[in-house]
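Page 37, continued from 36.
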């Protein structure tokens, strides 16, 4: 039994060997045709040029109909089957909230094109790997809000993610509010594992919730927090002010990330702190988190088979009947 595509397979593929007869039959037919019809030598063909009728041209195609019928019958004898699969999934999923910084500094160009675009791309790749998990999205700058609650509809989640832009919120870095917003969506979760991935590039300077207080809440409700500091070392081309039309003015500014705070949040909640200084290192960090937080999945596949040879038999009979009708009616020749 061999497969033909994702849902078609052949039970008796050995019958395809019969197709090797086609070249032999074709050779025999051409030799027989030359012996059956005599040749007439003429000094010039000008007098008969263009005299071949449409019946003559059509009659030359009759062997093609018979060959097509033969191929259809061979396929039918190979016994194609349509495979209908059903999956029963038993998964211990993980609930994950992603909290992403949208402060203006996320437009810094030490990542190409900037920190935010790279963070969005890598986060989307991570979401694609977590097929059976509920994932949500919270964002924060000077304030925080929920962009997308926990969902298994990852297509919608990625659509929200792709539309994230700096400037939609009051500027600032309210790490405590971002973390608290994410944790809030996990408080009532019944998942075996509850995770927050907090990504920021700055120092907490806004909001009315202290980051360590938010970490204590996370610890209390059993939420593990992975913190990621995004930004190169040294100076980076960063928004330093904003014009009246909303466009940012860029200048060199020192990269400042409160690594001690992020490390303390991670340690308090049994998570990990990571520093991403490039797009490649950010990808490796998400890969590491993906490996640490594995979802247990048991998939039982049920297969049902449906015979699919009937159309091939039908068309073989149609082609043979058409060939016979043409040969003995419209395209009939007198021996």
């Amino acid at each position: 039994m061999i497969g033909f595509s994702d849902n078609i397979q052949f039970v008796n593929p050995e019958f395809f060997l019969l197709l090797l007869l086609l070249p032999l039959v074709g050779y025999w037919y051409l030799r027989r045709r030359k012996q059956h019809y005599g040749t007439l030598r003429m000094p010039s063909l000008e007098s008969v040029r263009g005299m071949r009728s449409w019946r003559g041209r059509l009659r030359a195609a009759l062997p093609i109909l018979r060959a097509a019928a033969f191929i259809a019958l061979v396929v039918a004898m190979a016994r194609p089957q349509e495979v209908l699969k059903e999956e029963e999934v038993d998964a211990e999923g993980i609930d994950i909230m992603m909290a992403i910084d949208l402060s203006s500094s996320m437009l810094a160009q030490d990542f190409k094109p900037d920190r935010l675009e790279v963070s969005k791309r890598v986060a989307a790749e991570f979401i694609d790997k977590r097929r059976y998990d509920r994932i949500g999205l919270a964002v924060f700058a000077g304030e925080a809000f929920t962009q997308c609650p926990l969902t298994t509809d990852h297509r919608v989640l990625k659509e929200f993610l792709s539309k994230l832009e700096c400037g939609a919120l009051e500027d600032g870095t309210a790490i405590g509010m971002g973390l608290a917003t994410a944790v809030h969506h996990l408080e009532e979760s019944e998942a075996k594992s509850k995770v927050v991935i907090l990504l920021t590039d700055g120092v907490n300077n806004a909001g009315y919730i202290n980051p360590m207080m938010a970490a204590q809440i996370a610890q209390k409700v059993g939420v593990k927090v992975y913190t990621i500091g995004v930004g190169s070392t040294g100076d980076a081309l960063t928004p330093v002010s904003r014009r009246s039309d909303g466009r940012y003015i860029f200048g060199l500014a020192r990269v400042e990330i409160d690594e001690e705070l992020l490390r303390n949040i991670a340690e308090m909640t049994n998570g990990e702190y990571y520093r991403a200084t490039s797009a490649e290192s950010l990808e490796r960090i998400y890969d590491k988190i993906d490996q640490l937080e594995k979802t247990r999945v048991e998939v039982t596949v049920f297969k049902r088979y449906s015979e699919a040879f009937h159309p091939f038999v039908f068309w073989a009979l149609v082609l043979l009947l058409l060939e016979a009708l043409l040969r003995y009616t419209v395209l009939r020749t007198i021996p």
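The longest strand covers residues 80-92. Flag for discussion at group meeting. The chain has two domains: 2-37+51-84+302-328, 94-294.
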